[in-house]
């Protein structure tokens, strides 16, 4: 069969994490809409915004978590007249915000609303996958070995690194070189990958058995769960 080493390597989903493609844009901006009106700061966050720069300047070595705790302590001692000022500012801006938000929502079409919901689901799914990858690393899941082509690609990267800005062209060149590589040379990469894959499968099987014993069934492949032997029944002691 024809090997297609570029499959998936140039797709956005497989090579560029969702967070990298989206940056700090809002959900609406990510689907091509203008950003929705921002909610006004609550009284506490107004206070924080006001005092934080000075506290950071005076305590440059202080960890952020401790800085936030100190601000929270200060907030408890703020006099009521100052808190009332923050509250009045918040209420005034809240009225304006609700008006702008109502106008914004009323202009959205059903299709745009659906796109927003789909984007939210996509973001949530990406976060779940990221959390799962971290959990698998923490649990020590064996790392899957590279494919023959990726091994070849890594060697080429060392020999001739791609220039900034033309990664796609460089990848196409490496792919073409791989496709025209003599079978004997290609077999050496295939053999190494095959041997490491056998080792990986053995390690994965061992790891999954340990995960099953520890109760982490959600990180185990379905087929591994099917092979789990039934629990041994305890022998009842003979009655006297």
UniProtKB/TrEMBL annotation:
Entry coiled-coil feature ranges: 109-139
Q: Which UniProt keywords apply?
A: Coiled coil, DNA-binding, Nucleus
- DNA-binding region(s), residue ranges: 37-105, 142-208
Q: Name one GO biological process term.
A: regulation of transcription by RNA polymerase II
Q: Name one Pfam family in it.
A: HMG_box
Q: Which InterPro entries match?
A: HMG_box_dom, HMG_box_dom_sf, HMGB
Determine the domain of life of the protein's source. Eukaryota
GO CC terms, sorted: nucleus
Q: State the protein's name.
A: Putative mitochondrial transcription factor a isoform b
Originating species: Phlebotomus kandelakii
